[in-house]
Amino acid sequence: MRIDAERVKPLDMIFTVDLEDWFCSPELSLADWKRYPFRLEKPTHLLLDMLDEKNAKGTFFVLGWIAEHKPELVKEIHRRGHEIASHGYAHRLVYKQSRLEFKKDIRHSKSLLEQLTGSEVRGYRAPCFSMTEWGLDLLEEEGFNYDSSLMPNSFAEESSGLGGYTNPGSPFRIKEGLIEYPLPAHRIGSFHIPWAGGGYYRLYPYEMFRYGAKSWMKHHRYFLFYIHPYDLDKEQPRIFQSTWTSSIRRYYGLGGTHRKIERMLTDYDCTSIEHYEHQAVGRVQHG
Ligand SMILES: [Zn+2]
């Protein structure tokens, strides 16, 4: 960890990217994905350049299907010093798969990514945060060391299978061999307001996001941020507008994301989960 007495930034922020394209949605079947044009390379390069400029690192949760179709992009992300983790193969919600289907999905995607990069894949994030209790058991069995799918969210149309867990606010041991990196969500009474990124990041003005992040860090000494390449792509086709909430969550504020991320990378030292782990030995709560 860089130790600098002059530092005004109290803690690093964990920067994560869910590497998928604009059409990789559970609302479309895998067979239909081929009909749509790839758009993720340009916004991914934009993210990589912004991270490089600030000498920052991130964890990229890569979809196996993307790794198959864009192997050079995944290799480049790895070559530029970022951690490659898994977002599964086909972006299917965990709680809509059988245990056998999920096991095959995570095993196949882990092996694809490891063959591409030559590095061990240690982390997993469930598509749309759809993790389940049995899914965690299988992650552990398949050799993953951490999960990052716990995000209490009162705006979600379907609740995650991890609804039984209280978010302690910082990493904790969720299974004997598995650490959970939860996503910040502010709680007002029984209401959970996501604060970690994605569509919610586009929705909140930057100053408001920073205020919430600061308050979270003050209480938990931890913050994890996530974004998708399509969150920076204001020209993307707009086909997910079935409800006004899905339309806002998907398309609001696309033009401002780039600038907001630049400001965030200036305000915080951003790092990957892998680097955070090295810096934070002993910081993970047990129990
Ligand atoms: Zn995703």
List the helices and strands and how they pair.
Layout: E1 13-19, H1 30-33, H2 41-53, E2 59-62, H3 64-69, H4 71-79, E3 83-86, H5 99-117, E4 123-124, H6 133-141, E5 146-147, E6 172-175, E7 178-180, E8 185-188, E9 191-194, H7 198-203, H8 206-220, E10 224-227, H9 244-251, H10 257-267, E11 270-271, H11 273-279
Parallel strand pairs: 1-2, 1-10, 1-11, 2-3, 4-5, 5-7
Antiparallel strand pairs: 6-7, 8-9
Helix pairs in contact: 2-10, 5-6
The site of zinc ion has 5 residues, from loops.
Domain NodB homology: 30-287
InterPro entries: DUF3473, Glyco_hydro/deAcase_b/a-brl, NODB_dom, PuuE_HpPgdA-like
Protein name: DUF3473 domain-containing protein
Key terms for this structure?
single chain; 287 residues; alpha/beta; TIM Barrel; five-stranded parallel sheet; four-stranded mixed sheet; disordered N terminus; binds zinc ion
Please provide a written account of the structure.
This protein is of the alpha/beta class and 287 residues long. The chain has one domain: Glycoside hydrolase/deacetylase (TIM Barrel, Alpha-Beta Barrel). It is built from eleven helices and eleven strands. The strands form three sheets. Strands 1, 2, 3, 10 and 11 form a five-stranded parallel sheet that branches. It is globular and about 40 Å long. The two termini are 26 Å apart. The chain binds zinc ion. The site of zinc ion (ZN) has 5 residues, from loops.
Oligomeric state of the chains present here:
single chain
Uncertain segments are 1-9
The assigned CATH architecture is: Alpha-Beta Barrel
Query: Please, what is the CATH homologous superfamily?
Result: Glycoside hydrolase/deacetylase
Bound molecules: zinc ion
N to C succession of SSEs = EHHEHHEHEHEEEEEHHEHHEH
* Structural domains: how many: 1
End-to-end C-alpha gap: 26 Å
CATH class wording: Alpha Beta
Number of strands: 11
Domain NodB homology: 30-287
GO biological process, one term: carbohydrate metabolic process
InterPro entries: DUF3473, Glyco_hydro/deAcase_b/a-brl, NODB_dom, PuuE_HpPgdA-like
Protein name: DUF3473 domain-containing protein
